[in-house]
Design goal:
Distance between the termini: 25 Å
Radius of gyration: 21 Å
Shape: globular
Number of domains: 2
Largest sheet: none
Number of strands: 0
CATH class of the largest domain: Mainly Alpha
């Protein structure tokens, strides 16, 4: 079973160090996210199809590799694994400086996605080894707020690079992101060692999480709830421009609103989630609020005047961010609480695949529903959120029963097997 060398006093500094590591790479990531597509299209000369296919394949590889890298973190120790993966991410970002064609772009993007997915899993295992279970959800909420703050600052820096529009400006952003991950590695290196968990006596499946059917169901449900990610970044902007009378600047304003509310209230929302009962209620309510949000967004197709439309969009955005914070807090608690001790990296690597799945497949589904179907599409999407939120409670109960019936911790993950 994984353990820390000593929970105090060094581990008491762990949350602050994890926050600094998060901030160091999220600023660079924010700048990278807003500039990378234009750099690869306008400067390198890749087509939109090449960029889209390349990123989809890269994140598909990364999401699968993240599970194995999470398992590696469990066995070899999450701190050292996280440091190496932060360095690998920095190297991958740095390699973008030299990309001139599609194949090198595809390889570099796959390395970047793999390192990022593995780093996320290793960080979760490291957090689990250094932070008491009762404090994990609150620490994760602080990490989420820090992430949003860093992305916002980085997006501003990226905006300056976009305004300049030069190759040097773009490359400066990539260099900033690479240095952010180098600093992240340095900060993580200063944390206490968390020992790796030895393999269970008598042998065990290499990736036991793949045989844990209740946890797999919860991972799938979490991925469905994460369809809210392309909703704000892609589908809603298209809807506003094509189907409403609202001015274009509202897209940016709603993004700022979302980021600001998460920064201010995510920690407060997470404090109410202290166990699985609270977590399932939070996710269930998130599904209901997302249905209300989708219904409000659908109303904007009624042809109100510009300012009335802006007001309705703002209401929908407020409901959406409330649902986002509730879902995040509940999801974190569920993902950690149901992961067996000694396999948190592996389980978090698998649970975390919901993010790349939502970001790669979500845009196709969400835009097809909303841009093509219009108001019925909004209502259907809201119904998906509602049903998913309601199904989370029985899925958690199934997972709890399966763990209670398992004869030993070493076989807890085999509940979905024969």
């Amino acid at each position: 079973m994984a353990h820390t060398s000593s929970p105090a006093p060094q581990a008491s500094r762990a949350p602050r160090a994890l926050l600094l590591a998060q901030l160091s790479n999220s600023i660079g990531d924010g700048a990278f996210y807003v500039t990378s597509a234009l750099y690869f299209s306008q400067i390198v000369g890749l087509s939109a199809a090449q960029i889209g296919i390349g990123l989809t394949l890269a994140w598909a590889v990364g999401s699968v590799a993240g599970v194995w890298l999470g398992h590696l973190a469990d066995r070899r120790g999450p701190r050292g694994t996280a440091v190496l993966l932060a360095l690998a991410t920095a190297a991958a970002v740095g390699s973008f400086l030299f990309i001139r064609s599609f194949v090198p772009f595809l390889i570099a993007a796959a390395v970047y996605a793999t390192a990022q997915s593995g780093l996320a899993a290793a960080r979760q295992a490291l957090l689990a080894g250094l932070v008491e279970p009762s404090a994990r959800t609150e620490v994760l909420a602080r990490l989420q707020s820090t992430l949003n703050a860093g992305l916002a600052v980085g997006a501003g820096i990226g905006g300056l690079a976009l305004h300049a529009g030069t190759r040097t400006a773009y490359l400066s952003v990539f260099a900033l992101d690479a240095m952010g991950f180098l600093l992240c590695a340095l900060v993580l290196r200063g944390l206490p060692v968390v020992a790796g968990a030895p393999a269970a006596a008598g042998g065990e499946p290499r990736l036991a999480v793949l045989r844990d059917r209740p946890y797999a169901l919860l991972t799938f449900l979490n991925a469905l709830m994460l369809l809210r990610l392309p909703l704000l970044s892609l589908a809603l902007p298209l809807w506003i421009v094509q189907r409403t009378s609202a001015p274009g600047w509202v897209v940016s304003a709603l993004f700022v609103l979302n980021t600001g509310v998460v920064m201010l209230f995510q920690v407060r929302t997470a404090k109410a989630v202290t166990g699985l009962p609270e977590a399932t209620r939070a996710v269930g309510r998130a599904g209901a609020v997302m249905l209300a949000s989708c219904a409000v967004f659908a109303v904007t197709a009624a042809g109100f005047g510009p300012w009335a439309t802006v007001a309705v969009l703002a209401l929908g955005a407020v409901l959406q961010v409330i649902a986002e914070m509730r879902h995040s807090a509940g999801s974190w608690q569920i993902g950690f609480s149901l992961a067996p001790a000694g396999r948190i990296g592996q389980y978090q690597g698998f649970y975390g695949t919901g993010v790349p799945v939502a970001r790669t497949l979500g845009p196709l589904l969400v835009t097809a529903l909303l841009v093509t179907w219009g108001v019925p599409g909004w209502l259907l999407l809201g119904a998906i959120f509602l049903v998913t939120g309601l199904l989370t409670k029985p899925a958690v109960r199934w997972a709890e029963r399966s763990r209670a019936q398992a004869p030993t911790p070493a076989t807890a993950e085999l509940v979905g097997a024969h």
